[in-house]
Amino acid sequence: MKKKYIIGNWKSHKTSVEVEKWFVESSKLCEKEKRNITNDTTIILCPPFLYLSQVSILCKKYALPIKLGTQDISPFGTGAYTGEIAASQVREFAEYVIIGHSERRTYFGEDETLLAQKIEQARKANLIPIYCIQDATTPIPQDVPFVAYEPVSAIGTGNAQTPATVNEVAQEVRKKREIDTFIYGGSVTADNIESFLTFPEIDGVLPGSASLTATAFWEMIHNASHI
Ligand code: PGA
């Protein structure tokens, strides 16, 4: 079996009641799926910060094989940084952090300098950064081995890039840099997940919309389980 990552990014979706519902449904769906999920599969969920604690409790309550990540972190440590969540605070609940998503770059003006600070904070707190690139030319900070390729044209549009193209981009990036894990995000669904994961250079996927309902999320896991 191939080592693979399935990482749900909830973005700014859900209320605490909807979170609870997702987990109640997931507990049933996961029960059916459990024997198909091997150690080669890493399932990660990135909820809004606000629900990290709730999600962490629900994962334990239902014994779900889900690790936690966040969608961002502060470029600073703990201290007088109103409104920010520091990496060490995230680390209480999560192991992973998405850094440099195109929505952060576009709507919050995050640039390479700021993103490098976030990578540094993640490293200090022992969080694994999932660094998003928009194409093969996006600079990647030093010693970042986990990269998510997320072409803007494919995000939330239903127009996923072809797996063959993603595989080529992965090869191109790996020619320049040593990358352990290369994943793809942009309109991944239960219908196309398999086609991405069968390509040798693609180690996982980062679905947004398709992670929002428990049914769609576990259907993806089901369709990926034999690869
Ligand atoms: P999408 O989002 O699956 O809704 O296209 C992917 C992402 O932005 O990570």
Q: Which strands sit side by side, in order, in the main sheet? A: 1-2-3-4-5-6-7-8
Query: What percentage of residues falls in helices of 4 or more residues?
Result: 25-40%
Please state the overall shape, judged from the principal axes of the Cα atoms. Answer: globular
Mean pLDDT: 97
Bound molecule kinds, no repeats: 2-phosphoglycolic acid
Based on secondary structure, the structural category is alpha/beta
The fraction of residues in strands falls at: 15-25%
Contiguous runs where pLDDT drops below 50 for at least 5 residues: none
Rg over C-alpha atoms, rounded to the nearest angstrom: 17 Å
Total count of strands: 8
Largest sheet: 8 strands, parallel, barrel
Question: What is the count of helical runs?
Answer: 8
Question: Order of helices and strands, N to C?
Answer: EHEHEHEHHEEHEHEH
Tell me the distance between the termini.
6 Å
Walkthrough of the structure:
The protein is of the alpha/beta class and 227 residues long. Helices cover 36% and strands 16% of the residues. The chain is built from eight helices and eight strands, in the order βαβαβαβααββαβαβα. It has an eight-stranded parallel beta barrel with strand order 1-2-3-4-5-6-7-8, surrounded by four helices. Helix 1 runs parallel beside helix 8. It starts with a strand and ends with a helix. The model has no long low-confidence stretch (mean pLDDT 97). It binds 2-phosphoglycolic acid (PGA). The site of 2-phosphoglycolic acid has 13 residues, from loops. 2-phosphoglycolic acid binds next to loops.
